[in-house]
Design brief:
The chain is α+β, with helices and mostly antiparallel strands and 335 residues long. It is built from 5 helices and 20 strands. It has a 20-stranded antiparallel beta sheet.
Length: 335
């Protein structure tokens, strides 16, 4: 995929090649002839200047088209779908081990996994009563390790996609030291309590609004934990929202970058989950940039607004805001 700079360069080379091949007068005749009286005003100018002027118009159109595509590539949804699809095609075969000894339904049997080797356990009605086995939870989520009375008990490894959690279970509850290995090989260490990250650094399902039923189905947090909540620096993603920055007791606090799918991008300070302090907000649809002060998620204080011009360039305006309402337009001499 070519970048914006490459396209601009190719457009300029294309215009120059037309001028060389057809001749400057021929190009001017074709372009001004179709414009009528409006094109006659260019006949007395330098041909090079005319071609540069028209090249700029082509570049502005190219910039507009690529801005819309760029916002989709960097959106939280595209990032989430990219990482979800990266292992969905190749990992389907990882979670279907074969029974190499016995019937894996009654009695002593051995289940063989082509990546993790044999797992010998005692089965009753298809359930693992004791020994080492593999339990498929979902397509990309499974447990392998020790069992006792059909529950996770002892050393085991939980697989969530390509992220693994090595730790010790007690009657189905993960507690104690846990080693997390990410899909890129990064190793983090943490401490779990009642199957919840209690301290340290790990990757685990988490959501902002815990009142939703499907909250944990899409939200994930990567970073530091303390007493079961994100604390410190981390990254939160749930498919439509991506936040990278500071946390205190599970809320956005301190400096961070927040991206809302197809809406806006905010780079600034937060307090208790709300935009509070100096920040920069960029509207992904209107390409309008605002930088100034915020209070309780609203624009408050002095701020600057910049929006694209009609053909090229930008317009800048300085305003006074109060609780999200524009109060005063400051004169241009104050900029």
């Amino acid at each position: 995929m070519y970048s914006h700079a490459h396209v601009c360069m190719y457009v300029c080379m294309y215009v120059c090649s037309i001028v060389r091949f057809f001749g400057t007068r021929r190009v001017l005749h074709l372009s001004t002839g179709s414009m009528g009286k409006s094109g006659a005003c260019f006949q007395g100018l330098d041909p090079t200047c005319i071609m540069i002027h028209r090249s700029l118009l082509v570049l502005l159109l190219t910039n507009f088209l690529f801005q819309s595509n760029h916002s989709k590539k960097t959106s939280p949804v595209s990032w989430h779908e990219h990482h979800r699809a990266s292992f969905s095609s190749s990992s389907h075969r990882l979670y279907h081990p074969t029974c190499s000894k016995g019937n894996c339904t009654h009695g002593q049997s051995t289940l063989h996994h082509h990546l993790h080797g044999p797992h010998a356990a005692f089965y009753h009605d298809g359930r693992i009563m004791s020994g080492r086995g593999i339990h498929n939870i979902s397509h990309n989520h499974y447990y392998r390790g020790h069992f006792q009375n059909n529950t996770y008990h002892g050393l085991g490894v939980m697989h969530r996609g390509r992220t693994t959690y090595h730790g010790r279970y007690h009657t189905g509850v993960l507690s104690g030291p846990v080693t997390t290995t990410l899909r890129n090989g990064t190793v983090w260490r943490s401490h779990f309590h009642n199957s919840i990250p209690w301290s340290g650094k790990t990757r685990w399902p988490w959501c902002i609004d815990d009142t939703r039923i499907d909250c944990l189905d899409h939200g994930v947090y990567l970073g530091h934990w303390w007493m079961g909540k994100p604390n410190g620096f981390g990254i939160f993603i749930n498919g439509t929202v991506r936040y990278e920055g500071g946390f205190i007791d599970g809320t956005f606090t301190g400096h961070g970058i927040l991206m809302i799918e197809n809406q806006y991008r905010y780079d600034g300070y937060f307090q208790m989950g709300e935009k509070h302090g100096n920040g920069v907000m960029y509207d992904l649809h209107k390409h309008v940039k605002f930088w100034g002060e915020f209070r309780e998620n609203e624009k408050h204080g002095i701020g600057f607004t910049r929006w694209p011009g009609f053909l090229y360039g930008f317009n800048v305006r300085k305003n006074m805001w109060r609780n999200g309402i524009q109060k005063i337009d400051l004169p241009h001499s104050e900029l």
